[in-house]
Amino acid sequence: MVFDLDDTLYPERQFALGGFRAVAAAFTDVLGPVESAVRDMTRLFDSAHRRRVFDQLLLERGAPVDAALVQRMIACYRGHTPILSLHDDARRALARLRSVARLALISDGPSAVQWAKLDSLAIRPAFEHIILTDELGEGAGKPSPLAFERVMSLFAAKAAPCAYVADNPAKDFVAPNPLGWKSVRILRADGIYADAPPAPGGEPAVTIESLDELDAQLPTAL
Q1: Which has fewest Cβ within 10 Å: 2, 18, 179, 209?
Q2: Are 34 and 25 a contacting pair, CB within 8 Å?
Q3: Can you tell me the distance from the alpha carbon of 35 to that of 189, in angstroms, rounded to the nearest whole number?
Q4: In a shared domain, residues 58 and 91
Q5: CA angle (131, 95, 198) in 5-degree steps
Q6: Which domain holds residue 19?
Q7: Are 122 and 56 in a shared domain?
Q8: Confidence band of 222 (pLDDT split at 50, 70, 90)
């Protein structure tokens, strides 16, 4: 049983909001009062400007959108020490499934950031293997099959006994589906990608609303 990380095991907004607070505190000379800046970044994160929050915020502040400044803000965001907590159902699932399945994790994102998240959540020991696609080389992020093939090799597993539990159908299941894995989408009402449409070939085999429902997938997934 292989898990995604962000918005599968913990709320990704926790990391984003912590990062916004770090940026707001570090750049008060440009962004003004901390609470106001955090509030505006959160608003932009929940809008069509999600991928350009800092650029848009600078525009709204009437400041020049300086590429070097934006890069410093991104570095601050990514480099902050996160304080994260697992979803309750994720905590229960990891504790419960370790006795009946071999567990691994595949996650996209800058590796230093993802390791910091894992350490904040204190869940490294839960997994037999952790594959961060950033460490596999350029182009290895989902929907590349490379990480999934690596897990199969590490487990010496055929495709049929493998399942991937993740939240974003726009990219998460494109690779494991044709490899023969069972794809299980966790649909969280507050998830960032709750409304994301599936990519062609990326439809999940099963959609669940809680990882407490995951046990019902074990007989066919493993």
Answers
A1: 209
A2: yes
A3: 26
A4: no
A5: 50
A6: 12-79
A7: no
A8: very low
The residue among 30, 50, 79 that closes a domain is 79
Please determine, for residue 219, whether its predicted confidence score (pLDDT) is greater than 60. no
Q: What is the mean pLDDT of residues 70-93?
A: 98
Cα distance from N-terminal residue to C-terminal residue, the chain: 8
Backbone angles phi, psi at 111, to 5 degrees: -60, -40
DSSP 111: H
CATH code, domain with 133: 3.40.50.1000
For residue 189 the two structure tokens come to 């009402």
Same domain? For 160 and 199 the reply is yes
Name the domain count of the chain. Answer: 2
Q: Is the dihedral of CA 161, 166, 170, 171 positive or negative?
A: negative
Select from 116, 114, 139, 112 the least CA-distant residue to 3: 114
User: Looking at the structure, do residues 208 and 175 belong to the same domain, yes or no?
Assistant: yes
Task: Determine the pLDDT at residue 161.
Answer: 84
Whether the pTM exceeds 0.85: the reply is yes
Hey, is 200 helix, strand or coil? coil
